[in-house]
Design goal:
The chain has five helices and no strands. Helices cover about 60% and strands about 0% of the residues. The longest helix has 15 residues, at about 5-15. α4 (about 75-85) crosses α5.
Amino acid sequence: MSKRDELIVKYAADLKEKCGVTPDLDLLRKVTIGCGPAIYNKDSSTVSATSESELATVRNSFLIKKLGLADNAKLDAAIDKVMEQYGRSNRSKYRVVVYYLLAVHFGKESIYA
């Protein structure tokens, strides 16, 4: 099993156990590939829910640029909802899981088709 496949298994487990979501493994694989080499770096593979600059990166780089959403208060509300769903006390929030949940939240799975 490749390192990426091992990570996908880990992400799927987080979605199921910590978020209560049964993941679409095909979509999860595509989101993982879309994150590129960032998934292999300890710092860039996670999202800090307490860092304003980190949350701004999620909003600007993923929601606005990747998903093509308009910059408005709904974006911050969605990020907050996903962080709550993932569990605020959970220190390791994988970027791929956060992006997966946001893509599903906004119905933008087709971006990865």
